[in-house]
Amino acid sequence: MNGPPMGARWLKLGFVGPTLVFLIAFNVFPLAYNVVLGFTNAELVGGGREGVGGANYGRVFSDAQFADALRLTALFVFLAVTSELLIGFGVALALQRRFRGKGAVLTALLVPMMLSPAVMGLYWNLILNGNYGVLNQVLDAVGLAQPQWTTDKNLKLLSVLMIDVWMWTPFMLLIALAGLNSIPQSIYEAAEIDRAGRWTVFRRITLPMTAPLLVLAALFRTTDALKQFDLVMAVTGPNDAATQTLSTLLYQVVFRDGRVGLGSAYACLVLVVVIAIATVFTRYLDILQRRAVA
Amino acid sequence: MRALRWAVVGSYLFLAMLPLAWMALTSIKDREDTISQNARFVPAPVESTSPDSVAYPATLDAYRTLNEVFIGARHSFWHHLGNSVIIGVLSTLASVLLGTACAYGFSRFRIAGAKDWLFFILSTRFMPPLAVVVPVLLMYRRFDLQGTHVGLILLYTAFNLSLAVWLMKGFIDEIPRAFEEAALVDGYSRLDAFRRIIVPQAATGMAVTAVFCLISAWNEYGFAMTLNSSSAVTVPAYFAGLQGNIEGMPWPQVAAGALLFVAPIVLFTVLVRRHLLRGITFGTIKQ
């Protein structure tokens, strides 16, 4: 709710202005500059650059690398968000009832999402190592095969995915719990009077009433997983066809190959994708806020 | 049903905690024990154990040797931890101050297109660092900010503003307007009302916001790695840089350093546990 105008225009600007200046300098300006650079042959080393028209974009579209990274990122986002949502929701259902020490257990479960992906990803290399990692030692103890998680090209993406699921399932768990807690107990009681079965209650009450928040959580995670960089860098480095996401491709092109112009063209296309998803997210959030669900 | 619940929660808790527990065990090993072929998971206060034992001699050497400069790095862990603290704390202060003022503006004044501005502010968070880093890098070269603490502080401040504004807007919206209106009637200026009424009322919210800003600056890697090659490198970029180390990773020291690095975050998570939902969803979901 906005009240009547209470202050002079400069006063508003004094409160809001500095933040907007910061965001324009560090977001709007880089975006615009990216567009300009995308039409040049700028390199990381050396200052000179010339306009090359749409040559970079021509290369981007004729080169399979960008399409591959886009496909891989989409696959990664889909697998990560779906598994995190399913596991998170499942654990949230199990955590629904009150019990002693619930607060402590919940806090412990949530810790992984607060940690540094780069640091934890690096450390996961020790856990996943094919020859001396503890995961394979456990698999050995129970008589299962011990794959080379981080070096087998068919398993590298799975390794990144496992770490991502470990880190981000708590995010889904927390939001799913909030959704479950927001369902009034009286609805469950009414269902009990109607002798509704457990499955009917879940399908007709629990699921539809938590769905809006779960969708919001999934969109949130999608915008985040789309940026996937830290874990891929930790497990395989930027230039591995089995795991090259959009962000690591950008890193490879700009910082390893030094091709700033080409990288900027890539970045502009990545930003189109990001802005599209962000728009879906903010629209959905707006709808939820109007309905006062969120 | 009850048994199933316990099985699900128990096994998930075990898996969630396992990497951290293993990290703690690794940090008190010798390097040979970290890469031994058989699992060694029982620390023992002895000098040596047999090669096929699950027990290993516990040692604090890894913590003692964190002041060494490892191959692939130019400074010790402590130097980089210092960078993380300086950059994290200063950028957090700046984000919370600017964000609180901005949130107050959006909460209390009629601003044309307020909703669009707020969604614009939120959407800046969705930008992948790697997609905006080149212009920032060129800009920083021009202004001699590349590889400096100030450069990263400014960048993290901007990066965290979306979080700070949205979280603080939620907290300030909850403060009754009657408080300031009474103060304004009493002759306080708008700025005084903000300083003496709103800031104290919003103190908890500011503390929570600060924790979330600090964590995201503390953990950031993409910018830290690409804008830096020397003095202002933060811990995540430092550890990642050790990966090229041909003699193999100094795993006990990595575990010890990583544990020290994440310990404050675990503590903060416990402190703000009631506000976690708000923090991770930018205040869009409240409870």
Q: How would you describe this structure in keywords?
A:
heterodimer; A: 294 residues; mainly alpha; MetI-like fold; 12 helices; globular; B: mainly alpha; 2 domains; two-stranded parallel sheet; 14 helices; 67% helix
Write the layout of secondary structure elements.
The complex is a heterodimer of chains A (294) and B (287).
Chain A: H1 9-37, H2 55-62, H3 64-94, H4 102-110, H5 117-128, H6 134-141, H7 156-181, H8 185-193, H9 198-225, H10 230-235, H11 246-256, H12 260-290
Helix pairs in contact in A: 1-12, 2-12, 3-7, 3-9, 5-7, 7-9, 9-12, 11-12
Chain B: H1 2-27, H2 31-34, E1 42-44, E2 55-57, H3 61-64, H4 77-108, H5 114-123, H6 129-142, H7 149-173, H8 177-185, H9 190-201, H10 203-219, H11 222-226, H12 235-241, H13 251-271, H14 276-280
Parallel strand pairs in B: 1-2
Helix pairs in contact in B: 1-13, 4-7, 4-10, 5-7, 7-10, 8-9
What would you note in describing this structure?
- The complex is a heterodimer of chains A (294) and B (287).
- Chain A has 294 residues and is mainly α.
- Chain A has a single domain (39-290), classed as MetI-like (MetI-like fold, Orthogonal Bundle), CATH 1.10.3720.
- Chain A contains twelve helices and no strands.
- The longest helix of chain A is centred in the first third of the chain and has 31 residues, at 64-94.
- Residues 1-6 of chain A have low confidence and may be disordered.
- Chain B is an all-alpha fold and 287 residues long.
- Chain B has two domains: 19-59, no CATH class; 73-280, Orthogonal Bundle (MetI-like fold), CATH 1.10.3720.
- Chain B is built from 14 helices and two strands.
- Chain B has helices at 2-27, 31-34, 61-64, 77-108, 114-123, 129-142, 149-173, 177-185, 190-201, 203-219, 222-226, 235-241, 251-271, 276-280, and strands at residues 42-44, 55-57.
- Chain B is globular, with a radius of gyration of 23 Å.
- The mean pLDDT of chain B is 89.
- The chains are: A mainly alpha (294), B mainly alpha (287).
- At the A-B interface, helix 1, helix 3, helix 4, helix 5 and helix 6 of A face helix 1, helix 4, helix 5, helix 6 and helix 7 of B.
